[in-house]
Structure formats: structure tokens, C-alpha cells
Design brief:
The complex is a heterodimer of chains A (about 550) and B (about 130). Chain A is about 30% helix and about 20% strand. By secondary structure, chain A is α+β, with helices and mostly antiparallel strands. Chain A is built from 16 helices and 24 strands. A five-stranded mixed sheet of chain B has the order 3-2-1-4-5. The longest helix of chain B has 26 residues. The termini of chain B are far apart. In chain B, about 35% of the residues are buried. The chains are: A alpha+beta (about 550), B alpha+beta (about 130). Chains A and B meet through helix 9 of A and helix 4, strand 5 and helix 5 of B.
């Protein structure tokens, strides 16, 4: 029987991220994946700001950026009648999110109020992200990667999980093996077998929007339609009789994805659809190759529970979202990050029984919140198209006014998909059993400056992600946090010296805790409190101007021992 | 004559929809929850003004014929026949095709359309569509 602390089912981006996060914690895992290779379809097209922060903690941010959109290339979103124009609006300057990565990095470095993430987003297709993660996992001694292997079934008891896995490559003739682990995590996608074995249902109604259609094509020709031969990230196409979205997941490559609200009509070819998206003139011809195409059904579903006892789920197994807002994989990456240090704490022995339970308490509300956001984004996309008028393309004053109006409505509505830092980094784990909230914290929520939660307001209140900031020497505070344990930020003279009582209480329970003195007055203002206790996942679990009188009680709370 | 028949078919469809929704309200906890969560006016009409509107609120739903002065969401169809043919389809995609073909226009908050689509789906389903795996 194979022994491993953690068995991960599913080798997509979330499963691979979980394995890498566990390794960062010093925990071995076995990862099994039914497919024998990574995805060949672009799928997702963005690693968002929070996920990039997580990959930075894993030391993978640079590799991911190298595999994706060039650092100097745009991340614009535009509204147009076709990829050839006319263009009604190009969202380029109005938010950091559209800026090329190297420009956004300068903006981030200059930001002193904690209002920006440490990393900007990365435009990259899943088919180019997965190989980076897989290569890192295969090179990692803590990770036993087994592609071409599937979960057959499992049983769990009080001490662990016994799973049966089966080699599904042709030459192995179905050889099976038993795996004994302390925990089993299903990152096995929307049809998750692990979720099904656990008998966990989705909360939501399927197929609210119907069947959309997607085409993956490759073309060296389409780039010429864009300034400097640099395709915009998203070109939303709206005109009477045609709506769609042309995605360039990487301006440095020739892959494009065309989304349509439905499959081709009777007699309509995929080439006709592509041609109509690229130009208003039937005589315009483009060279392209259709790689694959097909229908798909967007969903707004969240699992009713995220696990039972020693078996948990993450990624698409917990949620299925329409890609409006780019939160499908990114929510899963944050789940993996949340889960990994808790698993590590329990494997190492200092995590208490409430720590694993806190995974669902913390992440299920975020999954539901993200679903609401994604749903609103989808609604906004539809609403933007309400402004398509019959005279949109007429060479008249009314036509010009209609084009201006459509551009304006597009910005108002569709910007929500992109400019939502509050959704990406502004959530708080308010209902967690392992977060110490301030007295009176239940009554107000200063992390929601906009009613829809899209704006981000930095805070060090319990459960929030620590606002990112830079030290006087230009180094990032995030880079100085302990990824394997808690970090006590000590703001002010003598604060670190006074922290000994908390460190002693932590040591008594084998909880790793490091004091990080911060001498910069700007950081004292930003972090609001003299002490801020930060978890390995960069979320605040306690803050205060005075250390608690009962330090062991606080340590027991944050490690889930009570 | 065709217009008149189309308008009558649309009115009939709205009436049948109301019956379906009220039945679902009695039988489905999910529909009851959805009805409790929101209150709004959902108008389905022709450009010429035929049709009606649903008033959702206080955990219930009512239908009125005619045009509401300030509906939260409007589906305005070129004619009643198109509306009838598309709205009775069980394929949501038909609605998207009809919109692109400009057989109808929309105004207002599309979340209401998603809400309506969900309750209709629940009302039509023989088995509980809500719980899906």
C-alpha cells in the first residue's frame, strides 16, 4: 500500500497548485490525474491578482509571466462592431488591470496606501499555465505526480483515507493500487467523483443561460487588425445581428477564442461566424485555422458543502461559474492556498480539529459571493447589448450617437468584469472559527466601500487579506511573511520585544510564529494596529494595540484547538 | 388578424405561466425562497403594447395585463407570435437567438430575467431541477 500524507485527485491548475502549496509547507503529496497530458484548449484566460500573489509566494510568478502575455503587451478590453472596427470604446487607461504588466508593476511599487495588490493580473491561457505548474510539480521531490491514473473509490475512517487508484494508460492494463493518506482532496473538476462519493449536491439551478458556443482558432493574420499587431485581450463584438467575444489569451501568440451566445444556425458554418466576427465586409478574408469548436453550458453553481471529515473538495468541484469576471480557476487557487497550510498544520500536529472545518466556513461564503459577482457580470454583459440600436452602423448623426452611447454603456456595464479588486482581494473570513474578530466587528463592514463589493478598501480587521505594502528598502512586506507559519507584524518601538509572551504561548503548542518588526511609520498608519497577526495564507487572524492577556487562548483559537 | 391571434396567444401564455408559477410556489421550497427574496415587476409585451406584467413580491406573484409605467425589466417583442413561439421553447438558446435576430428588445436589470428563467425552469421541471449533481 502506498502511503502519503495527502492524496490529491485532479491535476488541473487547482490540484497542481495545492500540491505545490503543500510542498511549500514541507508536506508530501501524491497527485493523480485521469488525463495523461495537460489541457490543449485555452480555457481560462487570466490569472488574477490574488492568484498571482499566491504564485509569487510559491516562487512561480516569473515563470507564469514568461509563459503568458508579454510584459509589455496590453490587457485591454474593447467594444466594437467587429475586430476590424468600428471600435466604440477601448478600456485601456482607466484602471491598472488593463495596463501591461511592466507598467502596472511600477504603479504597484509606487502605491503607498495598500490599495493595490502586490501582483497585477496575468493574461495567459490555461493550456500555457498548466505546463508551468506541472513542470514545477514534477521537479518537486515532495510531489508524486501520476498522470493517466484515476480514482476508483475511497473509504475514510478516523485516522485517514484508503483510496483505490487505477492506472488508465493503455500499457498498464488497468493496474490498480491502494493509497493510504491522512487526507484526500478532490480537485477533479465539475463532474467531481470525490464530490459525488461524498454525496454533496450543488446549490443552484442548472442551465440558466442555455448553451453557448466556443471556437478555438489560430491565426497570424488577425493581429494586423490591432495597433502594433498586438491584439486586445477581449474584443466584445456588438452590432445588430451579431454578438460575440473575441479573446486573445496571449498577444504574443496566435491563439484566439471566439465565444458566441449559441451554436451555428441551420446552414451556417463556423467559418461564416468567424468571418462575421472579424469584419463587417464579406469580401475581407483572413487566414486562420480552426483548432476545435463546440457548445458548452455556463453555470452558477456552488457545492452545498466543501468536504466531510478527512476528504475535501476544491476548484471546479466546489463551484462552476460562467467565466464572466474570470473567477473560476482563480477562486479554486485561493481555495487550494487556504486548504494547504491547514492540511500541513494538521499533518504536523499543531492544527486543531476546528482548523480543517474552517476551510468550509471561510471559503463557502466566498464561493457564493463570487457566484453573485459572476452572475451580475453576466447580466451586465447582456445589458450592454441592450444598447445596440438599428442605426448603430449608419453613417448618420444618429448612428454616431448610437456608437457613442454603446461605448459609454459598455464601459459602465462591462468594466465590472475587470475592475473588481474588491472581489479579488477584498473578502474577509468573518464567520471563521479560527479568526479573532474585534469587539463590535459584527455590526459594521468597512471592507465594502461599494455596495456591490467591487471596490477594495485595505483593512487589517480579522479575516481580511493583509494589505500589500513595501518596506523603506523597496522590499514587499508579503515577501517577508512566513509562508509556513504565522507572522506577528510589530508596528512601533519595543513592539517586537513585547511579543515574547505570544511567541512563548505559540511555542508551547508547536505553532510556528515569527515576529516581524516594522519601523516604517507609513506602515504603522496602513496596518492600523500595533500588532497584526498574519496566517501563512496572508490573511489577518488577529490584530490589536495590546497583546492579549490570555495568549494561550488566542493561540488555541487560531490553530483551531477550541 | 395575425396580430390579434398573436396577442391572444401571448396573453394565454402569460396566464398559463402564472398558473405554473403558482403551482411551483406551492410545491417547491426553492421557488418559495426565490419569491421571498425579491420584489419587482417583470414586463412581457409587444412593441405595440399588448401583453402583461408579473408583480413579484411578498412571497407571491400576480399577473396584470397591459403596460406597467416603471417595470424593473422589460421584454418587448415585435409581435405576439414570435413571443409565443420562443417563450414556449424549453431551449433557453432560442431566447438568445431571438434577441440577436432582434425579434425582441430588453430593458432594465437582466438579473430579473435570470431570476425569471430560474423560476420558470423550476416550475416546468417534473423532477427537482434545483438539486443537480
Amino acid at each position: 500500500m502506498i502511503q502519503t500524507p495527502v492524496l490529491i485527485i485532479g491535476g488541473g491548475p487547482v490540484g497542481l497548485t495545492l500540491a505545490l502549496c503543500l510542498s511549500r509547507q514541507g508536506i508530501r503529496s501524491m497527485l493523480v490525474n485521469e488525463r495523461t497530458a495537460t489541457s490543449t484548449h485555452p480555457k481560462l484566460d487570466v490569472v488574477n491578482t490574488r492568484s498571482m500573489e499566491i504564485y509569487r509566494q510559491l516562487g512561480l510568478a516569473d515563470q507564469i509571466r514568461r509563459a503568458g502575455n508579454p510584459l509589455h503587451a496590453n490587457q485591454y478590453a474593447a467594444s466594437a462592431a467587429s475586430a476590424s472596427g468600428p471600435y466604440f470604446e477601448v478600456m485601456a487607461e482607466r484602471h491598472m488591470i488593463y495596463q501591461p504588466v511592466n507598467m502596472a508593476a511600477r504603479q504597484i511599487q509606487a502605491c503607498a496606501d495598500g490599495s493595490l495588490p502586490l501582483e497585477s493580473m496575468q493574461r495567459i491561457p490555461q493550456m500555457h499555465l498548466e505546463p508551468v505548474l506541472l513542470e514545477a510539480a514534477r521537479a518537486d521531490r515532495n510531489i508524486d505526480v501520476r498522470f493517466g491514473c484515476r480514482l476508483y473509490g475511497f473509504e475514510q475512517d478516523d485516522e485517514g483515507v484508503t483510496a483505490m487508484i487505477q492506472d488508465c494508460t493503455d500499457d498498464a492494463a488497468g493496474a490498480s493500487a491502494q493509497v493510504r493518506s491522512q487526507y484526500l482532496i478532490g480537485c477533479d473538476g465539475p463532474g467531481s467523483r470525490v464530490r459525488n462519493f461524498l454525496n454533496i449536491d450543488y446549490d443552484g439551478t442548472r442551465d440558466l443561460i442555455g448553451e453557448l458556443f466556443i471556437v478555438h482558432l489560430q491565426s497570424d493574420d488577425i493581429a494586423r487588425l490591432y495597433p502594433n499587431r498586438e491584439p486586445y485581450w477581449h474584443t466584445w463584438i456588438s452590432r445588430p445581428g451579431f454578438q460575440g467575444l473575441l479573446v486573445s489569451p496571449d498577444a504574443g501568440r496566435n491563439d484566439f477564442v471566439l465565444h458566441r451566445p449559441f451554436a451555428p444556425r441551420d446552414g451556417e458554418t463556423i467559418e461564416q461566424i468567424i468571418d462575421a466576427a472579424l469584419s463587417l465586409k464579406p469580401s475581407d478574408k483572413f487566414d486562420y485555422r480552426i483548432v476545435q469548436s463546440g457548445p458548452w453550458r455556463p453555470q452558477f453553481l456552488v457545492a452545498e458543502s466543501f468536504g466531510r471529515k478527512r476528504v475535501f473538495i476544491a476548484g471546479d468541484a466546489t463551484h462552476q461559474y460562467m467565466p464572466t469576471g474570470g473567477l473560476g480557476m482563480n477562486t479554486g487557487v485561493a481555495e487550494a492556498h487556504n486548504l494547504a497550510w491547514k492540511l500541513a498544520a494538521c499533518v504536523k500536529g499543531w492544527g486543531g480539529p476546528a482548523l480543517m472545518a474552517s476551510y468550509e466556513a471561510e471559503r463557502l461564503p466566498v464561493a457564493r459571493r463570487n457566484r453573485d459577482h459572476v452572475k451580475q457580470c453576466a447580466a451586465n454583459v447582456f445589458e450592454a447589448n441592450f444598447a445596440i440600436s438599428d442605426d448603430l452602423l449608419h453613417d448618420t448623426a444618429a448612428g454616431a450617437a448610437a456608437r457613442r452611447n454603446l461605448g459609454k454603456v459598455f464601459t459602465q456595464k462591462v468594466s465590472r468584469l475587470y475592475e473588481s479588486l474588491g472581489i479579488e482581494i477584498g473578502y474577509r473570513y468573518r464567520d471563521s472559527p479560527v479568526i479573532a474578530l474585534d469587539a463590535g466587528d459584527d455590526e459594521r463592514d468597512d471592507t465594502a466601500p461599494s455596495s456591490d463589493g467591487t471596490l477594495y478598501c485595505p483593512t487589517t480587521r480579522g479575516g481580511a487579506r493583509l494589505p500589500s505594502a513595501f518596506r523603506a528598502d523597496g522590499s514587499a512586506v508579503f515577501d517577508q511573511l512566513d509562508a509556513r507559519g504565522y507572522t506577528l507584524l510589530c508596528c512601533g518601538a519595543d513592539a517586537a520585544a513585547e511579543a515574547a509572551s505570544l511567541q512563548a504561548a505559540a511555542a508551547a503548542s508547536a505553532v510556528p510564529i515569527t515576529a516581524l518588526p516594522l519601523h516604517e511609520s507609513a506602515l504603522h498608519v496602513l496596518y492600523q494596529r500595533r500588532y497584526v497577526l498574519v496566517r501563512p495564507d496572508q490573511h489577518v487572524c488577529w490584530s490589536g494595540d495590546h497583546l492579549p492577556d490570555d495568549a494561550p487562548a488566542l493561540i488555541n483559537l487560531i490553530r483551531g484547538a477550541k | 388578424m395575425t396580430t390579434l391571434i398573436g396577442n391572444l396567444k401571448l396573453r394565454l401564455l402569460l396566464r398559463i405561466t402564472l398558473v405554473l408559477l403558482r403551482r411551483a410556489l406551492r410545491n417547491s421550497e426553492r421557488v418559495r425562497r426565490l419569491m421571498r427574496e425579491d420584489s419587482f415587476v417583470f414586463q412581457i409585451r409587444t412593441h405595440a403594447g399588448s401583453g402583461g406584467y408579473f408583480v413579484v413580491g411578498d412571497g407571491g406573484i400576480a399577473l396584470h395585463y397591459g403596460v406597467h409605467p416603471r417595470p424593473d425589466f422589460v421584454q418587448s417583442w415585435a409581435n405576439g407570435n414570435d413571443a409565443f413561439r420562443t417563450l414556449i421553447s424549453s431551449d433557453e438558446t432560442d431566447l438568445l437567438r431571438a434577441f440577436e435576430a432582434r425579434q425582441y428588445r430588453m430593458q432594465g436589470n437582466f438579473r430579473r430575467a435570470l431570476w425569471f428563467n430560474e423560476v420558470i425552469k423550476l416550475a416546468r421541471s417534473k423532477q427537482p431541477a434545483y438539486v443537480a449533481r
